[in-house]
Amino acid sequence: MSNTVSPNLVEGRFSTDASGDPIEVRDPATGDLVGLVPGMGPVDVDAVLDAAVRGARTWRATGPIERGRVLLDAAALIRKDAADLTALIVTEMGKTTAEARGEVGKAAEFFEYYGGLGRAPFGELIPDSRPGTFALQKREPIGVVLLITPWNDPLLTPARKMAPALISGNAVVIKPATETPLITLRLAEILHRAGVPDGVLGTVTGRGFVIGDALATDRRLAAVSFTGSTVVGLDLQRKLAGSSIRVQTEMGGKNAAVVLDDADLDLVVPVLMAGAFGQAGQRCTATSRLIVQRGVAAELRARVAASVEALRVGAGGADGIDVGPVVSRAAQRDIADRVDAALGEGATVIARAALADGLAERGAFVEPVFVAFDRDNSLWRDEVFGPVLGMIEVDTLDEAIEAVNDSPYGLSSAVYTRSLDAAFRFVDEVDTGQVSVNQPTSGWDIHQAFGGFKESGSPFKEQGLEALRFYTRVKTAAVRTH
Question: Which of 196, 311, 406, 445 could join 191 in a cystine, given CB atoms 3.0 to 4.6 angstroms apart?
Fold first, then answer.
């Protein structure tokens, strides 16, 4: 328990100044106070943005090799502090120790990958039809970018956004989720230690309804990258429509896994369980719809049911735990309400993972549940963001693909099959930005472009080289030498 207010990074100094009351951060497994962060208001945000404008000029003038060195040093510090960072994620967000440890490693990899790109080409030499003339295209930073990050991956998502923004030469202002701000403030402190100049990185902690509009619509911004709910992401797009501020949104998902009759069920079941129930289902890429061809439906149903019933639920830091708490009491209530509503609409429970006596009263724990439903059920349509998996049966691959595409979301999907023909038909015809074959719907490597279609995201992708397109602009120059 800590009553200390963790400071924001503002123009190279650490400050607890804020016009509002501090915000409490609580352990979802126990409800205990973990720490406090400043409750910033619009006047506080203004100072951070002013500093970022100055920092953007400094960072733009810093060569990409030096920018890369800072990112590589930050990666080394993340690895050095890995044990402490892992423990903080477990306490603040509720992940299991194994999940939190994996998140810390991935965060370091993002800074390593983009730090290495400090030595990559940032442009190209192109022909010009005029005598004595050559042309070049160069990528340059766009200015000040705002990053709005969620609570479910509170270190990984900031790293995913910060690293490409910084290597491109931009100044960054980051607003973490109010449920999990402490780990982001630790990351800012690490980047400060690694040598990020004053003003190049600033943090903003505050409630969205207090500072959201003032922050995201400020004309000092060149871009906003948002990860969170579809409702908030679409509202952000509307507010910035017609402005010169670029918008990148990574929003919700209702991800489907298709199991065909020829699938290797020994492979399918553990992979499917990881995709559906890992991180307590609190991933935008979590598997929530299971579409099974009838020939294997009965056997798969029995195997998944047995695996669900064997899941061990408890505090993330405890030994042998498969599923930790969800992020908050509010999330716990919302998931329970959604499951109850689905059952009232005709869904039936196939299996549940039992909770120890009193566990749900002590912390924000939810029973992982496996249900049978139909396509009229709210669980088929609506994102739950919890450990809930629903199953339907189909006759053909065509029917399965149609079912996958029957969603306003288009983030991630998977197919399990031994047939290359079926696999590539699935890849070609599903309307999702991420597609897996014999792999889970979640878990994408740092150098692979990431993002969804439809209401799951905007045209700009994250990760890999694609991320640089969002954080840079292209300048073309023609040079006559004689």
Answer: 196
